[in-house]
Amino acid sequence: xxxxxxxxxxxxxxxxxxxxxxxxxxxxxxxxxxxxxxxxxxxxxxxxxxxxxxxxxxxxxxxxxxxxxxxxxxxxxxxxxxxxxxxxxxxxxxxxxxxxxxxxxxxxxxxxxxxxxxxx
Length: 120
Known about the structure:
There is one protein chain. With about 120 residues, the protein is an alpha+beta fold. The chain has two domains: about 1-45, N-terminal domain of TfIIb (Single Sheet); about 55-115, CPE0013-like fold (Roll). It contains two helices and ten strands; from the N terminus they run E-E-E-H-E-E-E-E-H-E-E-E. The strands form three sheets. The protein has a five-stranded mixed β-sheet with strand order 8-5-6-10-9. A three-stranded antiparallel β-sheet has the order 1-2-3, with helices on one face. Strands 4-7 form a two-stranded antiparallel sheet. Strand 1 and strand 2 (about 15-25) form a beta hairpin. It is elongated and about 55 Å long.
């Protein structure tokens, strides 16, 4: 059975509307992309959507109550709820520097969660 899907590419400012026909889990046809990066984006979205996760982590005893964090690489979109739970349960102590690893090797994925602002 052929499934038709539509994506708005977020890789560059063009925002191409890319149409994809998926037949039995395999891409049969792609149209609407204006560059190669759009093709790569849609192939990844069909195979396994990936996202950078941005959030905050509680800070105990700092000049701010939380520190903003993000993953240093995209992670599977399906794991975001589990990742957010892990971040919600975490509390760190200052000082914290920009780029400091808050979680190393998140869930065994070779992805780190890093601070995106300093906390004293």
